[in-house]
Amino acid sequence: MHDVSQQGHSTNLIGLSTACIASLDFNETPKPLRIAGTRESASGLFEQLFKQSTREACGQIFQDYMCVVFGFESEQRLRDDASGRRRYRNSYLRLIQDWGLDSNNAQGAVFKGWVESRFGLFPNYHKQRIASFSCKDWVMYIEEKMNSRYHNNCIYMQLDLLYEYCQWVIERFQFPSATHKTLYRGVNSLEDHCLVQGEDNHHKIVRLNSLVSFTDHRSIASEFGAYILEVEVPMVKLVFFNELLPHHALHGEAEYLVIGGDYKVKVQR
To answer: For the chain, how far is it from start to end, CA to CA, in angstroms?
Structure first.
């Protein structure tokens, strides 16, 4: 059964057990995380990044690199010979954009599937709470995350590079001495979140979904629900944040994409 006692696979690509990554202890005393082989496979990119003196210049180099390596520009020139329709070439930017529109769509399943593959964490919510491997919601998640439409351009490799670039920027520019970031999430109900322990009405331990959206603006979080969850998120669990890239679709919401697990949560209204 996929339940509150089982959080993920026994294997992953980051060199620590999934149980450790998902644990409250890890979130309080985090360790560096690396997706095996990612920086080594793009050593030329990171060599160029080290030569830059500003985050903005690094962001432009990263996006130019991704555009060239994964052929985003050529997508506009490619057409299917038989039907004349434009070929679909998936990109990390499109996945970020579609996540912002609806984290429970097929693209959201692909994003959660990447977290499952690399960090070992099962999602506990996709459209609805996922209670077991045999429930229809788990089967729907599997079908959507494996949809070939979204795996035709090494999308997991793109997301590997996005995560490693995010961590590189944090180390180099953003918060070189900080280990955590205070973030907020607005929700209408606490029932969609897996409660591990309720200390009192305002302090709980919650098992967050494998990938979760937050903001660093409390006022923005209040627009998305009656309750505000305040969480101290380890920097090593950030996949994306608003200032990371010069060009993306989530600039207006100060959004952070966070890897899940067990977190201490302060509940506010």
So the answer is: 34
Q: Are 224 and 186 in contact (CB under 8 A)?
A: yes
Cβ-in-10-Å burial (0-12, 13-18, 19+) of 165 comes to buried
User: For the chain, what is the mean pLDDT?
Assistant: 88
Per domain, the residue ranges of the chain are: 18-268
Distance CA 42, CA 45 (A): 5
Q: Which long-range contacts (CB under 8 A, 24 or more apart) does 85-91 make?
A: 88/149, 88/152, 89/152, 89/153, 90/149, 90/150, 90/151, 90/152, 90/153, 90/155, 91/66, 91/153, 91/155, 91/158
For residue 90, what pLDDT band results from cuts at 50, 70 and 90? confident
Residue with tokens 């996540």: 99
* Alpha-carbon torsion, ordered 97, 214, 103, 35, to 10 deg: 80
CB 207 within 8 A of CB 261: yes
What's the pLDDT score for residue 65? 96
Whole-prediction pTM = 0.91
Q: Which of 51-60, 85-94, 152-161 has the lowest mean pLDDT?
A: 85-94
Per-residue pLDDT band at 80 (split at 50, 70, 90): very low
Q: Where are the beta strands (DSSP E) in the chain?
A: 125-126, 128-129, 180-187, 194-198, 203-215, 227-234, 238-241, 255-268
